[in-house]
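FORM 7B: Structural annotation worksheet

SECTION A. Query
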Amino acid sequence: MRVSLIHNPSAGDDEFSREHLVWLLQEHGHVLAHEAAKNEDWSHLIEDPGDLVVIAGGDGTVGAAALKLIHRHVPIAILPMGTANNIARALRIHGGPAELIAGWPTARRRPMDVGVASGPWGKSWFIEGVGLGLFATAMAVLDERDSRTRSKPGTRESKLERDVHTLKGLASEYPPLLLDGTIDGRPLSGKVLLVAAMNIAAVGPNMDLAPNADPGDGQLDFALVREERRADFIDYVTTRLRGGEATPPTDVHRGRSLRLAWSGYDAHIDDRAWRGENPMPDAHAAIEIDVAAHALEVLLPPATENA
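SECTION B. Predicted structure
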């Protein structure tokens, strides 16, 4: 195949370097149409992507690249190399680059949904999900902390541990949100710590807020953590911090659209945190989240899709 490669040069190690990835692609008979790093100009690649776009990196790289390819009818192939790899986990894509590339000749194309969220931050497409409340605030706190210091976790495990510690610390006294909205026209109300519109099961440090979410079913899973389940949520986060498995204390409602009145709380769109005190000048005090069914295609090697 004629393929384009988008990669995060800071992901992985020498085994996953740009040079090694290009060598693997050529070793398996593929012709490299274009190649770009995560922070480079992709315009030439998007205009002429070839037969397949290969995305090597974590959720941030996968999400940023995939959103450029909505409705382009060119499949993407993911080589997971990030910290959480939530998107690859949701698609059951695992293994090293050599194993995954070797499986492409017999792979199948799987449709994948994307979402679109409009609110006081403007309008944004998303791959993973949109979060309102507690988790979004935790992401913003971590982003601000990272911007002030050069001392960051050195390993995937230490970063996940730090992120979960921060989430747990905020959860004990986080002021609840008062919901006023609808899911597919059905009333939605009550006091919650967070709302998550999920296209996949997990968000952030592998928090499986919507365990049964299917990124190709044409719907979103709207997960709520209600205020009365605060202690259960802290227990859940503590268990995950210790490496254990636990069922999230979420109420999950499946649907195509969410409408909410906005009352100043924080949000995140995929891995981009947004602070509630910074609305756009012409923003409406409302949030609208919808699904765009089957807007992408993902290549699934047969060795991974049934794992």
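SECTION C. Observations
The longest strand covers residues 286-300. The mean pLDDT is 89.

SECTION D. Sign-off
Analyst initials: ____
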